Amino acid sequence: MEKLTRGRLAKSSGVHPETIRYYEQNGLLPIPARSESNYRLFDRESIDRVHFIKRAQSVGFSLDEIRLLLSLKYAEDATCEPVRQLAQEKLAELDQKIQALHAMKALLEGLVEICPGGDEPIEECPILDHLTSEHLDM
Prior knowledge:
CATH class of the domain at 6-78: Mainly Alpha
CATH topology of the domain at 6-78: Multidrug-efflux Transporter Regulator, Chain: A, Domain 2
């Protein structure tokens, strides 16, 4: 079975070699074998594992959550339930972030609407006044 150095694993996975090092240091990749020259030698399954990590990150999972997902994925007696629960928690977290983003957008839209722009003196800018004030509500 072909083994990959850190650089070849990084290239095959589409990430930087330092990313591989980081994943390795944080327990997201198994400890690799070593060559006679003391190079780390990863198996081809590591490519799939890096792709899994990147896809999990793309839907919002943190590295700690990904570590948990990987441990469940490779546990012989694990079930889907803890994975589902984690995904539901992530959905709730994303909903909260979306609500916060909507509130920020509404606030900025309101500020842009009341700002005259143009040649008005900067001292009369309602956006800067709002950002300078002690409260951040409209």
